Amino acid sequence: MSVTLFSPEGTLPNAPYHHVAVSTGTRQVHLAGQVAYMPDGSPIPTELAGQVAQALRNVARGLDGAGATFRDVVRLTFYVTDWHPEKIGQFMAGVQAVAQEIDLPDPMPPASLIGVAALYEPVVLVEIEATAVLEG
Predict the structure, then answer these.
(1) What is the block-wise mean pLDDT of the chain (136 residues), using blocks of 10 residues?
(2) Half-sphere exposure of 111 (CA within 13 A, CB side)
(3) In what order do the strands lie in the sheet with 111-116?
(4) Phi, psi (rounded to 5 degrees) for 23
């Protein structure tokens, strides 16, 4: 495996993500702009949990297209519109709804959640970026 995830002593305890990723691979995969659009063109979910779940599925699809999985991810960035700390339950419900399906490590790779005023379309509540590192 080209990625080792860990949280050193003294970092925020019980975080849903690791604080550090160390990679030894030579090929980088960068995914940007993954939102909750449905592959079949049906309407995207309207609630945060549903959008988080579908956006993570779309990240998994992008990783797979590059020959990677979430086990190769060294960084996740979540952009969430109109963020308030009370939304963490909805956000984590979306993560947990698909974690097993997409083989998302628990805790997740290092991750940041950034609140934004808006994304490129009013219906989009979350956007995800991911970086993975692979051998060769």
Answers:
(1) 81 84 85 92 94 97 95 96 96 98 95 96 96 88
(2) 23
(3) 27-34, 126-134, 73-81, 111-116
(4) -120, 150
- DSSP letter (8 states) at residue 95: H
CB 109 within 8 A of CB 18: yes
- Structural domains in the chain plus CATH codes: 3-134 (3.30.1330.40)
Contact 106, 38 (CB under 8 A): no
Distance CA 106, CA 98 (A): 12
Within the chain, strands assigned E span: 3-6, 20-23, 27-34, 73-81, 111-116, 126-134
Supply the DSSP symbol for 8. -
